[in-house]
Amino acid sequence: MERTFLMVKPDGVQRNIIGEIVSRFERKGFQLVGAKLMQIPTNLAEQHYGEHKEKPFFGELVDFITSGPVFAMVWEGENVIATARQMMGSTNPKDAQPGTIRGDFGLTVGKNVIHGSDSPESAEREINLFFKEEELVNYSKLM
Ligand code: CMP
Q1: Closest-lying ligand 1 atom to the alpha carbon of residue 49
Q2: pLDDT at 74 (0 to 100)
Q3: For the whole model, what pTM was predicted?
Q4: ipTM over 0.90
C-alpha cells in the first residue's frame, strides 16, 4: 500500500487547523499510520528541504519551518501521494483552487499551511527522516 509524508506547517498548527486537515484525509478514506507534534531542529529542516539548498528562499524556508511546532504525519492508501497533492492544491495559495487545503486556508507561498511528498522517492526519504519504522502502525490484521 502506498504511503506519503504530510506535515501541517507552523502556520497551520498556530491557526488550529490540524483537526480540519486530518479530517479531510480521514474522510477521503486514507489511514493515518503515524503522527507527531514536534519542533523541527535546524539540521533536520536542512535535510528535509535539501533539494532547495541553492534557492534564494532556502534560509527563509528553514527559519519558518523551525519557527514553531509542526504536525508530522504518515498516511497510507491507494494513490495517496498524488491524491494528497491534489487535496493540498497548488504550492502557491494564490493559484490553489477553492476546496483545496491551500485554496481554503493559505495566503502566501511561504506560509502555505501544509507540505506533502511529491513522488514515491521523496515519500520514502521524508518518512524515514521523520519516523522510525516502529513509530508507524499496521492495520493489516484488522482487514
Ligand atoms: P513545500 O511543499 O513545503 O516545499 C518547498 C517549499 O518552499 C514550498 O512548500 C513553499 O512553502 C516554499 N517556497 C516555494 N517558493 C517560495 C518562495 N518564493 N518564497 C518562500 N518560500 C517558497
Answers
A1: 5
A2: 98
A3: 0.96
A4: yes
